[in-house]
Design brief:
Elements: H1 8-11, H2 56-78, H3 86-95, H4 98-112, H5 117-126, H6 130-138, H7 141-156, H8 161-176, H9 183-213, E1 216-218, H10 228-240, E2 247-249, H11 253-262, H12 266-277, H13 289-304, H14 311-316, H15 324-355, H16 367-379, H17 383-387, H18 392-407, E3 409-413, E4 427-433, E5 439-448, E6 458-463, E7 474-482, H19 495-512, H20 526-536, H21 543-549, H22 561-569, H23 575-594, H24 602-613, H25 629-632, H26 643-660, H27 668-679, H28 687-695, H29 701-708
Parallel strand pairs: 5-7
Antiparallel strand pairs: 1-2, 3-4, 4-5, 6-7
Helix pairs in contact: 2-3, 2-4, 2-7, 5-9, 6-9, 7-8, 9-13, 11-12, 11-16, 15-16, 15-23, 18-19, 19-20, 20-26, 23-24, 26-29, 27-28
Length: 716
């Protein structure tokens, strides 16, 4: 998942929490305060955030001041008496908002990595003010007329490619966000945005509450099947929570997943499963169902003001899919094969349960547990055995190796204390060009789960690359939720978690390799921007990585060749589960936004829709609706969760290009094309055009089906 701050010219289309000063003053009267969160960054590496000086007390005034500064810049641009030009309008907009960008870096960290109840109160205070700021930009008639003038001139006499692209993206964003509405509709549009900003904040905080407060504590006699490393970590977490002598299973995927895979305690598996999949759906003050219903109503009303039938139609017009129908066609082409595979997987699991004399019928909390037993029987592959060779430190080195081979990057640890960090767990590396030694930027890693940190894994930028005011280096971060080990213990992760680690690093490499002139061109096309990170996952299973970096955490011995062979043979194992749980979430996302939201009952809609789709009862959606933060804590992935599969078609197809190459995944010629066309341009060219330049044609769904071991659909 990608999370990043973008320039103000696009910010009103996202669910970032911002504010503005209620008492606007003229530019000449505004001076920057001594609030550290708004100040220019100082120190090495072109300046770095002062994470060691962050404070909750400073964040609200910093945001309000930065918004006031930004709006003053906008007024200067909008009221320029000179005729609108690319330089005095578009370039001026690209240059503005630097103070706001800096403040959002701290705000994002406080919200995602080190949140507290006190900070969440500030979020709630600031959230309603979001639309006051956004609306003053998106509804600034003078500003839009200048943008429109530049846009229309560029249609007659095109600018150089990157300039033309930024003009078109800027105009389209204003148009999509109601710039052409009349005064009455603009007023309602602004009211809707204000209400949505509060709802998004409430949704996120409700999920975080349930993650923090539903913890399962185990006794010594309830540890059957769990690995020694997991037990030590669980004991350490319980101790930190004041329950010494107990073992804590936290309500996050990184804790839930291994517990459900290995615990022999079926009733406890059920309890942990129910805690996790009931987040935001417990019928209490933190229940998200009514919030979701209101979000859907407001989204539909908002796009109706601009003449769209539904939110999905509005959202997808500038994505690769273009229409909801195209996205649905892709998902429904894969869905039958995925659910059919689930039936096969469940039959295999039930057979093993019967052989063991377990008088059960496979339920959702049994799926991972018995799937692991099937894996051992079919492939003689023990996931826990594989984990002994998947050390976090070694995986980090493996990612650096891949970055060196494909991108010519070198990663060097930054001496502790040189660069401020927001938590002692965070480590920093300098990224340089291997040949020239040029500084590319800094890479921050925040690997462990903790109180106040949102679940999952994501990548973000603190500073993105652009060159219109001189070259800038990149400050990028990867954030995970691995269970922190007991002191002195290695961090061992599952193959799936290792894959996710590579995935998020792919986002970071996408940031580092950007070769764009203007900040807006760093923005992503949602059903394309996951492609690059999904593609990088493929290097985890290359021989070079396996042979060099997958070593036993105790003996240091390389992973045995026979175990590697088992891993490769089992590569399509459990694809029914993985594909179906994902697609169920993506389909519900789309169908919710195509449905009539009047009097909608979210739980009922989810159940009835899954029944109509033929969702296997033995597994849940990957993200049940009441906890679906991708879609309801903001708008970035709303009607766009399908994008992971859209990107995976590209990934599978691009992977075949490497397999066909002389030197496989390390073929220099293909790697150069990869960087040139698929990573460096970001959004400086149409994604479909960029992919065709790389591959020579469009991607084909057949590659995806082959990757997952599914039968290829036959054309009528």
């Amino acid at each position: 998942m990608i999370s990043k701050t973008i320039k103000f010219s696009l910010v009103f289309s996202l669910a970032l929490i911002t504010s503005c000063n209620e008492d606007q003053t003229k530019t000449s009267e505004i001076t920057m305060s001594d609030n550290v969160l708004i100040q220019e960054w100082t120190g090495p590496y072109q300046g770095v955030p002062s994470f060691d000086k962050m404070s909750i007390d400073a964040i609200q005034p910093a945001i309000e001041e930065a918004m006031a500064l930004n709006l003053a810049e906008i007024e200067n641009i909008a009221n320029n008496e000179a005729a609108a030009t690319f330089e005095n309008t578009i370039v001026a907009m690209e240059s503005a908002g630097k103070a706001l960008d800096r403040v959002f870096t701290y705000y994002g960290i406080m919200g995602s990595n080190v949140s507290t109840p006190e900070f969440r109160k500030i979020q709630s205070v600031l959230a309603p003010k979001l639309s006051d700021f956004r609306s003053q930009i998106s509804q600034n008639e003078s500003l839009f007329q200048r943008i429109k003038s530049v846009y229309e001139a560029s249609q007659k006499t095109p600018l150089e490619p990157q300039a033309q692209r930024v003009v078109e993206l800027t105009y389209k964003q204003f148009e999509m966000n109601g710039a052409n509405l009349d005064a009455e509709k603009k007023k309602r549009y602004a009211e809707i945005n204000k209400e949505l900003s509060s709802l998004y904040t409430d949704f996120s905080n409700n999920v975080l509450h349930d993650e923090e407060n539903y913890i399962t504590f185990l006794d010594d006699n309830q540890l059957g099947g769990l690995s020694p490393g997991f037990i030590k970590s669980a004991a350490n977490i319980a101790k930190e929570k004041g329950k010494e002598g107990k073992y804590a299973i936290t309500n996050t995927r990184s804790s839930m997943d291994p517990f459900l895979t290995y615990s022999t305690e079926r009733e406890l598996r059920k309890q942990v499963w129910e805690n996790y999949y009931a987040r935001g759906d417990n019928g209490d003050d933190y229940d998200n169902n009514k919030i979701i219903a209101q979000i859907l109503k407001l989204r539909k009303e908002r796009v109706a003001l601009m003449g769209y039938d539904n939110f999905a139609e509005w959202r997808l017009q500038n994505r690769m899919a273009k229409t909801p129908e195209n996205a649905m066609d892709l998902m429904m082409a894969v869905w039958p094969a995925a659910t059919a595979r689930v039936k096969e997987e469940v039959a295999d699991m039930q057979a093993i349960a019967n052989e063991l004399g377990d008088s059960i019928t496979i339920a959702p909390w049994d799926y991972r547990y018995y799937a692991e037993k099937v894996r051992k029987k079919k492939y003689d592959l023990d996931s826990d055995e594989v984990k002994q060779y998947l050390q976090l430190d070694q995986l980090t080195k493996a990612m650096f190796f891949v970055a060196g081979e494909l991108f010519n990057y070198n990663f060097t640890p930054v001496e502790e204390g040189t660069v401020p960090v927001f938590h002692e767990d965070v480590k920093v590396w300098e990224v340089t060009d291997k040949n020239t030694g040029k500084n590319i930027g800094l890479w921050y890693l925040d690997p462990y789960a903790r109180q106040g940190k949102r679940s999952g894994a994501w990548a973000t930028t603190y500073r993105s690359a652009d060159s219109f005011e001189g070259d800038k280096n990149v400050l990028a971060s990867n954030n995970s939720n691995f269970v922190k080990p007991a002191p002195g213990e290695a961090v061992l992760v599952s193959w799936d978690d290792a894959t996710t680690f590579f995935h998020e690093f792919g986002h970071a490499l996408h940031f580092f390799s950007a070769d764009v002139k203007y900040p807006t061109l760093n923005s992503g096309v949602r059903d394309y921007t996951e492609f690059q990170s999904q593609l990088l996952e493929r290097w985890l299973s290359t021989d070079q990585v396996i042979n060099k970096f997958l070593v036993h955490y105790k003996t240091g011995q390389p992973i045995p060749a026979e175990l590697v062979e088992k891993i490769k043979k089992a590569s399509t194992f459990n694809q029914g589960f993985g594909t179906t749980e994902y697609l169920a979430s993506a389909l519900i996302d789309m169908k919710l936004h195509l449905a009539d939201p009047t009097d909608i009952d979210i739980d009922k809609f989810e159940k009835e829709t899954l029944d109509e789709l033929g969702m296997p009862k033995e597994l849940p959606m990957r993200h049940r609706t009441p906890q679906f933060g991708h879609v309801f804590s903001g708008e970035g992935y709303a009607t766009a969760y399908y994008g992971y599969m859209w990107a995976d078609v590209l990934t599978s197809d691009a992977s075949e290009a490497f397999r066909e190459a002389k030197d496989g995944f390390y073929d220099k010629a293909i790697a150069d094309k990869l960087v040139k066309y698929l990573f460096a341009p970001r959004n400086a060219m149409e994604p479909a055009e960029a992919y065709r330049k790389f591959r020579g044609r469009d991607a084909k769904i057949e590659a995806l089906m082959r990757d997952r071991g599914f039968p290829i659909p036959q054309n009528d």
